[in-house]
Design goal:
Largest sheet: 6 strands, mixed
Number of strands: 10
Number of helices: 8
Radius of gyration: 18 Å
Number of domains: 1
Order of helices and strands: EEEHEEHEHHHEHEHEEH
CATH topology: Rossmann fold
Strand order of the largest sheet: 6-7-8-3-9-10
CATH architecture: 3-Layer(aba) Sandwich
CATH class: Alpha Beta
Structural class: alpha/beta
Distance between the termini: 38 Å
Shape: globular
Bound molecules: adenosine-5'-triphosphate
CATH superfamily: P-loop containing nucleotide triphosphate hydrolases
Length: about 240
């Protein structure tokens, strides 16, 4: 389904060490310890308000920790660190790009912003590798479905050579076919050595696509599991007992 690997990867590790975040007197994240190694897909589950987005925002440097630290390859990173800018990409729940520009134009624009210049053939390779149908490559994004936008967003992350990809609720609102395509794409991204962390409410998807699963409750990581060691049914039961 997908083309050849587009980059040769180094091995990148993302870590939170005793990471906490307070909003005023409210502790949204408490002493989080979490590691995502190269090739792993870490799925964070938890009810609304459990602290998943806070965790992602801390990794991205959108907010600063109250305590603790974030490491990329064992090196501590500050909010505006170059390591973060170079190696992290973020796929939000709804990928916001330029609606009046085509998929190729958006990809070209955001690649250039990140310092990468590609030929049109190469840009098309990225879009193909992320599963965007050829008939959509030159169409304005305004008419794209959520799943199509997501593919362009992921193509941008790949074109920017991101080693670590963070996603927030990537399968919410996707139809089953788009979810299946997304799952295949994420598995491929991980198989190429990227480290992937996603916040999700989709228990079935977490088991089918994740390598590791964390369940959060009120800012604390209560359970960490290997996806290969639990069925979707058992995970659902554990999740319901936890929350
Ligand atoms: N800027 C903020 N100021 C004050 N409180 C905040 C702020 N951002 C988040 N919170 C609170 O921190 C807690 C964790 O929120 P967070 O968005 O991380 O949860 P979540 O697990 O991502 O939830 P959801 O599944 O709804 O996205 C919530 O109680 C939320 O109300």
């Amino acid at each position: 389904m997908f083309g050849p690997h587009l980059f040769t990867f180094y091995f990148f590790m993302l870590q939170a060490i005793s990471l906490s975040k307070n909003y005023g007197s409210y502790q949204a994240l408490k002493q989080l310890n979490l590691t995502v190694n190269a090739g792993e897909v870490y799925c964070l589950l938890g009810q609304n308000g459990a602290g998943k987005t806070t965790t992602i925002n801390l990794f991205l440097g959108f907010i600063t920790p109250s305590e603790g630290k974030i490491l990329i390859n064992n090196e501590e990173v500050s909010a505006a660190d170059d390591l973060r800018r170079q190696h992290l990409a973020y796929i939000p729940e709804v990928v916001m790009l330029y609606g009046n520009l085509s998929a190729i134009e958006n990809l070209n624009y955001f690649s250039r912003l990140a310092g990468f210049e590609y030929t049109e053939d190469k840009l098309i390779d990225f879009l193909n590798a992320c599963g965007l149908q050829a008939s959509a490559h030159r169409k304005p994004l305004a008419g794209f479905s959520k799943g199509m936008r997501q593919k362009v967003g992921i193509a941008i992350a790949v074109a920017k050579d991101a080693k670590i990809i963070l996603m927030d609720e990537p399968t919410s609102g996707l139809d089953p076919k788009a979810t299946a395509e997304f799952t295949e794409l994420v598995k491929k991204l991980a198989s190429e050595g990227r480290s992937i962390l996603m916040a999700t409410h989709d228990i079935f998807n977490a088991v089918s696509l994740g390598t590791h699963i964390g369940i959060m409750k009120q800012g604390t990581l209560i359970h960490t599991l290997k996806a290969s060691e639990i069925s979707a049914t058992d995970l659902q039961e554990l999740y319901l007992q936890t929350i």
